[in-house]
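#struct-help
A.M.: can someone run this one for me? Single chain, 131 residues.
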Amino acid sequence: VQLQASGGGLVQPGESLKLSCVASGITLDDYAIGWFRQAPGKERKGVSCISMRAGSTFYADSVKGRFSISSDNAKNTVYLQMNNLKPEDTAVYYCAADPGNKYYISSYAFERDSPADFGDWGQGTLVTVSS
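D.P.: on it. Structure tokens below:
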């Protein structure tokens, strides 16, 4: 499994970015794909994930209404559209994959527990939100 994340950059507050995660060696239909972020000095946390078979998505509370996860299975690619970016969104963003479906009892549980539930990780892409 190889995952290639891209699309990060430096933006001002309120602007948008779209991250891409291209997967190879797997068929997206059989996997859950997650986006995670790690700010300097902090733990890695879940941002959003999509389970392809179940068609379910999860978001951290802090990004609900601003971020949207989607996939193009023909391109084996998962996207994270990030709108109305805030300085606190600054982090290295990673995508990861794991077979099957993911379910979390709450957004808090997703954000806290999901990094341990994904086994294959790509390299990160840096998102910096600053004026």
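A.M.: thanks! The CA atoms of residues 2 and 83 lie 27 Å apart.
D.P.: also worth noting: The first helix runs from residue 107 to 113.
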